[in-house]
Amino acid sequence: MDNDSKKSLLASSTKASVVLGLFGLIAALLLGIVNLVTADRIQEQQRVAERRALAEVFPEHLHDNDLLLDTFTLAPEDPAFSQPELLQLSTSRQAYTGLLNGLFSGTILPVEAHDAYSGDILIMVGVLANGQVSAVRVLAHKETPGLGDKIEATVSDWILGFDGKSLLNPTQSRWKVIKDGGEFDQLVGATITTRAVVDAVERALAFFQLNQNKLTNATNQF
């Protein structure tokens, strides 16, 4: 092979490498943009779901303050509270304080379930000042459509079964699905999912009981 042929071959190889490198760079940039847009969209969807859930978890007759203003942050490991691990938070989440005529009427706590069938479940639990559940709503999950997704209030009324419950009603031994000897119905084909949600709600109530005095004054101070 003469020198001209070698130079031509080297030039072709270099050009091909540059082209491939450019394609790789463009692909990486596009993937990064898609991931960024998707992440922002997912976060926005979660925020929309959270705002909608607030009105359902703690209706207006239970408070006369702006829940979006009276908030505080709960961290996975928060020294300000006792046993924050009960909430099993994977990241810092917002909690909300309800006030009625200037007095504490309850709180809305974030809690997570990591032992569901198809992934983590993000839950919002409203707890009245007397320790009773005002309502529970699921913010995000990956459960199977037609089965596990019945934990959503828009799909079935199963989640309404927590309304008015407390750590005393039912007793601790009954905070389980019926299949495990407890009081709560399990969804057909989704026992693991419903079991995880029941456990999460009980943990949220236990956290409230341990920290009630702090939660009464927990607005933007921790």
Structure keywords:
2 domains; 5-stranded antiparallel sheet; 2 helices; 18% strand; 5 strands; alpha+beta; single chain; 222 residues; 36% helix
Structure notes:
With 222 residues, the chain is of the alpha+beta class. It has two domains: 1-55; 58-216, no CATH class. It has helices at 3-57, 191-216; strands at 71-74, 93-100, 103-113, 121-128, 133-140. It has a five-stranded antiparallel sheet. The relative contact order is 0.13.
Lay out the secondary structure.
Blueprint (H helix, E strand, L loop, with lengths): L2 H55 L13 E4 L18 E8 L2 E11 L7 E8 L4 E8 L50 H26 L6
Antiparallel strand pairs: 1-2, 2-3, 3-4, 4-5
Weakly predicted, low-confidence segments = none
How many strands, which pairing sense, and closed or not: the largest β-sheet? 5 strands, antiparallel
Termini gap: 76 Å
User: How many individual β-strands?
Assistant: 5
Question: How many structural units, i.e. domains?
Answer: 2
Count of runs of 4 or more consecutive helical residues:
2
String of helices and strands: HEEEEEH
User: What is the mean predicted local confidence, pLDDT?
Assistant: 85
Taken from the alpha-carbon principal axes, the silhouette is: globular
Structural class: alpha+beta
User: In what order do the strands lie side by side in the largest sheet?
Assistant: 1-2-3-4-5
Helix content: 25-40%
Strand content range:
15-25%
Radius of gyration: 25 Å
